[in-house]
Amino acid sequence: MYKPLFDHIEKFIVLEPSEIDKLESTLTLSKIKKKEHVLEEGQICSTIYFIIKGCIRQYIINSKGAEQTLQFGIENWWITDYLSYHNHIPSSFYLQAVENTEVIAIEKTVLEALLIEIPSLERYFRIVSQKTFGAMQMRIKFLFTMSAEERYHHFNDHFPEFVQRVPQYMIASYLDFSAEFMSKIRAGKV
Amino acid sequence: MYKPLFDHIEKFIVLEPSEIDKLESTLTLSKIKKKEHVLEEGQICSTIYFIIKGCIRQYIINSKGAEQTLQFGIENWWITDYLSYHNHIPSSFYLQAVENTEVIAIEKTVLEALLIEIPSLERYFRIVSQKTFGAMQMRIKFLFTMSAEERYHHFNDHFPEFVQRVPQYMIASYLDFSAEFMSKIRAGKV
DNA sequence: CGAATTTCTTGAAGTAGTTCAAGTTTTTAC
DNA sequence: GTAAAAACTTGAACTACTTCAAGAAATTCG
């Protein structure tokens, strides 16, 4: 049931059997229905989510009242608002299930205790976080150097199944252009 | 001499005296001259830099041959290409000193050994990396929701000394608009 | 199933930015 | 201190995208 998380952890570190037991006894699985929020703007985010199945997006509502997706999380990704989580300040973001989703939700206090009991988890989270940061650096690069059309094709080439999986207007805003323009790109009218 | 780093580490974790000694004996200070590179596109990045004094920027050369600054690092920041570092793949970026800069440069092999000898450093790097990731999430938000003029004023309000410190064209590209447009914003001609 | 809702498409008009080219000012380096 | 290089400014022409409005298609759900 928590196998995807253990598999992911074991890509980076080795856990003792006793640590596996400890971890297993602490975790709980939650189900989030499509469109349900696990975080809303203004709330303090004190939970970190590991996605077992489904998809969660981080989005904001911009000054024109439109939703803008900033990030997607899918299977085997951690997602949270790290700034709100670490600094204990109100979040600027929404976290919402794009599909019916199953997550392991870990409260900050629970995770802090786990990290003290299983110090090698610090290493796991350090590596995962640095790798995710590296991916974000590339994302900034793509946003800065590619045209809207290039960004669409690049994303579509790398994640074709994902493009089928979520509404196009979410992908459009994630790639920083309008849903209408995406429609025109897809139709070859640009 | 390494005090800024120890001060920074001690904001997040407690080190034993023996660990301080160990760390101190491992570190070396390097000086990087203005405009000198510590990483060039295509190289594999196997070093992580802590900036004691000065400024380093991460930039790319876009398809039109123009430099585009993606990130700045100043005093008390760690900077590297995390994707190249972790995945051992050629970097997409340049890392260049914007001013004469002093850094603690730690080789990956040295850092790996240190992390084994001083496990609590895992915790330090985990926290720093997650916080930096949180800051990057906000950066994406600003890029997505503010106009060029808003981004300029926001940045100028938050980092007025920094805006004085580095060439304007680097800030313009960091904020994702042209140097000419920045000139017009500053002159109030927009 | 059928109604309601959500998502996608299309064209026309508008605009926030870029690009180019040339001149001016500031900084660097011998 | 002065020549060269780097950084900044300005205006005019252009363009990659947005916005709006309306209709069509697909999906959801009682």
From TrEMBL, chains A, B:
Protein origin, superkingdom: Bacteria
A Pfam family reported for this protein in Swiss-Prot or TrEMBL: cNMP_binding
Chain ranges of the Cyclic nucleotide-binding domain: 11-123
InterPro entries, per the entry: cNMP-bd_dom, cNMP-bd_dom_sf, RmlC-like_jellyroll
Designated name of the protein: Cyclic nucleotide-binding domain-containing protein
